[in-house]
Amino acid sequence: MKFSPDAKPERWLGSLALAVISLISLGNVVTRYVTGGSLAFTEEFSVFLLVVLTFTGASVALRRNGHIRIGLFELALPEGPRRALILFQCFCGTIVLGLIIWFGAKLTWDEYQWESLSPGLGLPQWWYLAWLPLLSVAMLVRLVQQTVDRLRGRLEDES
């Protein structure tokens, strides 16, 4: 039986974001064609949903070992140094995601305290920003899962 890692919650959320982007964009095009004006909320929601889609897609790619990387050096190494390199890759990814989580949460909290409103619709800005640290946590979990699977030999690297 072949091992097939998955990230179902992220796939569902990304699919939902893409479907909503498609529907509101279609609605905006039809409205513009029929009335000559456009729906005000579509741009703000589309940008927000594109960010959600990007982070959920990155999380799914992490889980499935599908991120682009140059594996020539990694594949040329013997088992011991290769495992050390995999751990180093995880360490670097953890640092980057940790910084995104920390500063994303700090920014979200600041926007909540300042009661900042979005420029287009006047919604609380933190509603949009809260997804940045949350989805970064999901990516961090998927990074750790991917690393464990790679170290155990459960994920095959491209050759």
Automatic annotation (TrEMBL):
InterPro entries: DctQ (IPR055348), TRAP_DctQ (IPR007387). Its main location: membrane. It is a multi-pass membrane protein. It holds the Pfam family DctQ. Keywords: Cell inner membrane, Cell membrane, Membrane, Transmembrane, Transmembrane helix, Transport. Residues 22-152 form the Tripartite ATP-independent periplasmic transporters DctQ component domain. The chain crosses the membrane at residues 12-33, 45-63, 84-105, 125-144. The keyword Signal does not apply. It is found in: Cell inner membrane. Part of the tripartite ATP-independent periplasmic (TRAP) transport system. Belongs to the TRAP transporter small permease family. The complex comprises the extracytoplasmic solute receptor protein and the two transmembrane proteins. This is TRAP transporter small permease protein. The lineage of its organism: Bacteria, Pseudomonadati, Pseudomonadota, Gammaproteobacteria, Oceanospirillales.
